[in-house]
What does this fold into?
Amino acid sequence: MSVAWQQSTHGVLRRQEKVNRTLMTTFVVITVLVAALGLLYLGLVASSAHLSSDIWHMHSEMAEIQRESSRLETEIARLSSIPVLQARSVALGYQAAESIEYVDSIEVGAP
Amino acid sequence: MIRGPEARLRLVTALLIAALLPVIGQLVRLQILDRDRYQAEVDELVMRPYALPLPPDGTIRDRNGDLLVGNIPIYSVGAQIDLITDTQIAAAVLAPLLDLDEGALLEKFVIREDEEDLRWVWHRLAHGIRGDNAEAIKKLKESWDWLTLEPTWQRFYPEAELASHTLGFVNADGNGYGIEASQFHLLQPRPAAGMGEVDVLRVPLSEELAKGKLRAFAGTDITLTIDRTIQAFVEGELDKALELYGASGGTILVMNPQTGEILASASYPDYNPSLYSTYDVSEQGRFVDPAVSVVYEPGSVFKMFTVAAALDSGSVTQDWSYYDSGLIEYGGVLVRNSDGAGHGQQNLQGVIDHSLNVGVATLTTQHIGADVFADYVLRFGFGRPTNVGLFGEAAGLVHLPWDLNWSDGYLVTNAFGQGIAVTPIQIATAASALANHGTMMKPRLITERRTPEGRVVVIPPKVAGQPVSAETADYVVGLMEHAVETTIVKAQVPGYRIAGKTGTAQIPVSGGYDPVEVITSFIGFGPLPDPQLLILVKLDRPQVDLSVRWGTQTAAPVFNLVASRLFVLLGIPPTEPIDP
It folds into this structure.
């Protein structure tokens, strides 16, 4: 039997088996880590897509609220415009003041 | 030499590495070397131009925050025709909401021959749908996914014709006038458009929006110096005056001489800015603001500047006097007083009280001189725009001694406001210098700008110049106050010290002046000694009896009505006792 064979079947082989086991453990750990990172990545992508969708909806809602706000603002302006107020005040029987009289106010109790 | 399992293991490892190398090589090629090419191919497939919904234009408000120009959302309604299951029902339901005939709507639902091969067919059904109809269509869209609503904006003027000339309008290209045109670059929104990942309907994908590459901004909001209550009142008084005196047009300007703020600017003819596109071509003349873009010869109103120039330049002193024979000839021009009479010995007060053409012509021709007078005309801002902030402002027309077309006769006629063309805003601004103790404020219409980011930019008052000294200004104001107290009594406002000057100007026509038609005007301010209100009333071609076709008889009473009410509206109490 050759020296090599003896080495491979005795001490050397055992050492190699030990090394292989370490490699396997490392491989498994790395695989688990990669899988975990992959899952994390997928989760983040899914979450990001969901958030993006929410953002789009919020964009749409914001635009709709802005439109509604502008519509209401113009409606308020129309209802409180001078011609409308004048017509309303006439309907309520108000009249323009004929004359204005200013009264001097004297501070009561002043020395 | 190694044999056995170890050798096989090495061989397999080498083979695996050898097999992996091309894969790595390809990855390097795809991801690094040819990256741009493949990125371009991907972009070609998924990247398309898209735009975010357009935000509204900036609003325009009056000085109290009341909305003068706003925006209302309107919608373009369309339909993906190939997806409509029952066109009859769709037409019956939609026709009244789109304000369309049912038959006409059914025609829009027909797929044309040239569209038969298309994957999907979209037709626009109506544009400008708003209010309750738009809301109803939005609800229908929940069940009819073939309906499309594209939002956009339309300018809205809640006060209709109010301040129409000041506000103006603008078309899609930015052409127009008024504040809308002059501030177009600020009022218009900043749209957001670019390339990105979109779906089949060109709607950006959520991921694309999340990148936040595009941001749209609404237009800048503008606050004016105009007070809508004063504006409405002044417009009403102008309408009444035009009817009472049969004038073809007119302008009333209300200004704070201490700040240059324009509180109201009313001119007739006016129009409704919401309907500007419906006016006939022959009515395009309405779209010019007479207060800033139309020039006229101011007439005797100009005498206050002539007297101020004479005093301020030191050409005459306050005790100057002359003998008024009723006419003066200079440079080939013969000038008479408006009443044709001679007034004997007169001083500066007499010149203003009786509005003597001969008196001011004597001042310019015998004392001030052409160069000095021209200098003062320019100092008061005539011959150049006031830069009030409105599009299309006219510069006016002044004749200067160094002009090629100068004639000595201009020195005579310019003295009493003829042969010189000004805009109402110019004459009001110049008069404000006298009212404000010689300091002329730049007239302004904008008091504040608010950017979409919320930044507020306040526009402060700005001095436009000091054409005359405070002493000169106050003395001339004193002369004008005396004129109101003695000869322009219809301009008097009980309880308030008022200074003012009338003008009755002939209208230049081809070959001379119209023998009958005039422009009457009055500029007054008060309460003295620190006027807070300056009012210019100008009436074009009043059709009243010739004997009362004067500024004193037409424009001055209008000033009285406007000033009396505005003092109350602005809370300016009387400064003098009022006789019961």
